[in-house]
Amino acid sequence: MTEILGVPVAVLSGQLMLGVINGAFYALLSLGLAVIFGLLKIINFAHGAMYMLGAMGTVLLFDAFGVNYWVALFLAPVIVGCFGIVLEYFLLRRIAGQDHIYSLLLTFGIALILQGVLTNIYGVSGLRYSMPEVFRGGMNLGFMFLPYYRAWVIVAALLVCFGTWFMIEKTRLGSYLRAGTEDSQLMQGFGINVPLLISLTYGFGVMLAAFAGALAAPIYSVSPVMGSNILIVVFAVVVIGGMGSIAGAVITGLMMGVVEGFTKVFYPEGSAAVIFLVMVVVLLIRPSGLFGKEA
Amino acid sequence: MATTTTQTDIQQSIVRQQKSEQRKKQILNLVLLALLLLAPAVLYPVFLMKILCFALFAVALNLLLGYTGLLSFGHAAFLAAGSYTTGYLLSSFPGLTTEMGIIVGTATSLLLGLGFGLVAIRRQGIYFAMITLALAQLVYFFFVQAPFTGGEDGMHGVPRGHLFGLIDLSDNNAMYYFVLAVFLGGYLLVQRIVGSPFGQVLKAIKQNEPRAVSLGYNVDRYKLLAFVLSAGLAGLAGSVKTVVFQLASLNDAHWHMSGEVILMTLLGGTGTLLGPVVGAGFVVTLEYQLSQGPLGDWVDPILGAIFVLTVMAFRSGIVGEIQNFMRKNMS
């Protein structure tokens, strides 16, 4: 067996792939956070809970109605997205003019409620979701074994990230969003329905989180608490990348996944902490983040 | 001539009003102090000590959140650092007097706060919250893996020891008055800080940071000092809590704890001295009552609902709203 730095290639590439997959989830989640932050200027503390709802939704849709994977992958994010719009309309909107600290605390409270209620109903041990038939098995690439589902996760996440980038940078709706990010009052003056745009943006950001959750359902343990720890990591990712650009959020997410994967090979004890350490280093050298614009 | 008399009249009446308000505050404080001194005769001392520890913790957070406008989402790290350090010292060195364990625990949190502060004050607003949360998670991982913390089980059987080598703290009443003294010390320190010129600069930073910069204040240094002081007080709360309960656990380091202390401060009233104390009393009592009843599993969602309700309906908190009400109806 060939080795690199005393580690078998199969182990290295295997961990690297797991890293890329984790990175794909970080990318999707930080993308959603960045989209919401851009227009609403708030940090969505309920983002982890929305990710969890997406995964739980996928499992429960199957258990209750026998909804298959492909439909759930579409339906769960849409339902969670609509739920997000309701939250925005009834709660977030009412404190829009206040200090941003309050919206952060409000979304934190929402996350506590969602996580707590679902924990009481389903427990923390995790629900089982069987892998869709198509994705069973994998292919041998010669140097490593690649399960089909993992390949699909990477492809799907990248497609959605690219689609989001395309929508925001190249379409008319996206141009409204970018204009609103610059100066929403002026936009309102041009006769664009900014409150509606804000609702839709929050709904969309939340939908991205739920999509990540639905994508995660077959490979990760699905439980009401699955969102809280990943959210903290994603916060660190967001601080590292800066929330200035869409591409920046995606690239940083993938990069941090890979860094985490490498650490698992060479120093397993540090893998949980490495992203936070990177954050500290980045803050000391470049406080605005790798892709950040503001000083 | 007539105008000057009215002016002096107004000035005098303002001074009189301020004096009477001060007197009212003094009376209120004395009444509260008397209640705290007599409380163990009526209520279980350990329960009261729990409230006092969390009240001190919330008072520490309020120095940042309420008076400097910085939302730290990582204060659990300081509580835990104080808690674990004191627990480790008192368990491992039987000859050590209790107050030494507490002092070293507090100093550890102070230093940790310096480290956190140097990194976190590089960003403002919500970034600050995210950074402190991430740093606290780092500390959490450290406590999970460090050999001396007992991992998931935590540290048990920490001896309460003797205060100054003289007073046996295993007696709950002695312990209570010691905790009360520590709490009052912390509370008065924060009161003193807030009222000092330093505290005025902190308030200026909260209200308008760019203006404070333009007035020539080195804002970062003020923020850092506020952060370190807050971290030290939080560590003190953690140290004392370990001595009271004779255990240090991972719960203290978890982000959940950071959220809980924010809730206490917010619910009681940020930027008021008494608010965090009231908030801590409310939350600790609520959690205790819920854990006794059929709703024991519903603590989290209920806390979350209180969060939402407070943010939506009364952002000034209990004490803040009462103050607003008094102000409106007195004048």
The number of E-state strands of chain B comes to 2
Shape of chain B: globular
The fraction of residues assigned to DSSP E strands of chain B is: under 5%
Structural class of chain B: mainly alpha
Report the order of strands and helices of chain A. Answer: EEHHHHEEHHHHHHH
Provide the residue-averaged pLDDT of chain B. Answer: 88
The value of Rg of chain A in angstroms is: 19 Å
- Which CATH architecture of chain A would you pick? Orthogonal Bundle
- Give the strand order, joined by hyphens, for the main sheet of chain B: 1-2
Query: Biggest sheet of chain B, open or closed, and with what strands and sense?
Result: 2 strands, antiparallel
Helix content bin of chain A: over 70%
Number of helices of chain A: 11
Beta-strand residue percentage of chain A: under 5%
Biggest sheet statistics of chain A: 2 strands, antiparallel
Please report the total strand number of chain A as a whole number.
4
Number of helices of chain B: 13
Q: Which whole number gives the mean pLDDT of chain A?
A: 87
Task: Tell me which protein chains meet in the greatest interface and how many residues each side has.
Answer: A-B, 40 and 39 residues
Q: Can you tell me the number of structural domains of chain A? A: 1
Question: What is the fold named in CATH at topology level of chain A?
Answer: ABC transporter involved in vitamin B12 uptake, BtuC
